[in-house]
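Example record used in the benchmark description.
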Amino acid sequence: MRARLAPLVVALALALAGPAARATDLLDAWRAAASHDAEFAAARAARMAGQARQQQAGTLWRPTVALQAGVALADAESSTRGAQFAAPGFGRSNGVDFDTSVNGGTSTRYALSLRQPLYDRERSAQSEQLRIAGEVAERQWQAAQQALILRSAERYFDAALAAQQARVTQQQLAAVQKARVEAEDRFRIGDRPVTDVHEASARAAALEAQQLASTSELEIRRARLADLMGAQPSAQLALPAAKPVAEPEPLAGWLDRAARDNPQVLLAQAQLRNAEQEVRKTSAAVSPTVDAVAQLGRERISGSGDFGRASNTSTQRALGVQLTVPLYTGGWRSAKQAESVALLEQARAEFERAREQAVQQTRTAWLELSVARSRTAALESALRASLARLDATRVGLEAGDRTTLDLLNAQNDAAAAELGLLQARVQAQLQRLRLAAAAGALDEALLVAVNRELAPLPAGQAEGDRPRGS
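Model output (structure tokens):
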């Protein structure tokens, strides 16, 4: 067993050794994740696309100018009968015939047109929907940012707690091995029963197995953090320092902010407005459009025909207002209207559901954070009592009033109390972030404030050995 443990112990010692460079803190993890995470990169690209949609909204009401030009081989024939002809010097003639013909001639055509929308219900709704689409992309990016902050904090603290678990297990194993050696020495001189040796050996074997598990868990959690960051974090991570947990603001204020500013609520609200615009596009049975139009065009065909060389040129100029009224769409408009109304009801229901979920999340996070102060204080008292019991048990063992099993149990209880306190402090900070996220107030500024309250534990130093107030 010792031969198998030796490589893992060396690897654990290297992983837990204090690095020469600055330790990775919570801000480092978040910033690295923000530049590496693929999901966040997709949200950033979607945000840029949304900004482009908002620019498109204004262009729908700007004039459009188009130029058309073409050249082709063409035939043309024209025949006029019974025309009246008059020209200076020729008098006036009735019943005149005119025939022209071009076979395989060259036809050229160009047209320049301008259209300025003046009134269009559907275009107006489309413009508003494009603005809403930009807002939706912005809300989705904010939600993705908050989700990444939470994910970064969770993985960071998971790795930090796993490192501390490995440290504590390593310390426990060293203490138990020391107690086993002492029990064996005392047994040889007849000062301890053989049961003390067996108890210490059994506890050492259990801790060796626990060390294997904690080392594996540490590597897994560090790998998950490295995957998020796109780089390996330093060996030394930080955990919340021994500071009182701040009391949160009254619940009523948080609930109001969540119902108003929660990213999912804002997203559902934007989607509701989009559904309202979709109903507006088809709300009228007849939806006319009015456009100001201007057009300049010229067409010419020339070549040889049945009567010799011939050419024909025509020029058109127009400036005015055009009215378009759709009279019949095959039932599409009424069917689209029925669909839009149903989708609007769905959007309303989803908006209300988003508000309810935001309020529930906020209430849960607030309650968890509210009890964190008392819970942390109780666990601090439990740790002090466990450490005092451990010291008393050591003295009692030397005096012969306590057994080796009593000492091992006291060491185990102290280690459990230490880890429980660290977990409670981590949960308090995570609930602080979750509460802010539910209210739409989680950003890097809050992460900076949380990061200031963290302190790295030097390798091999237990919570009970850390100076108070650090």
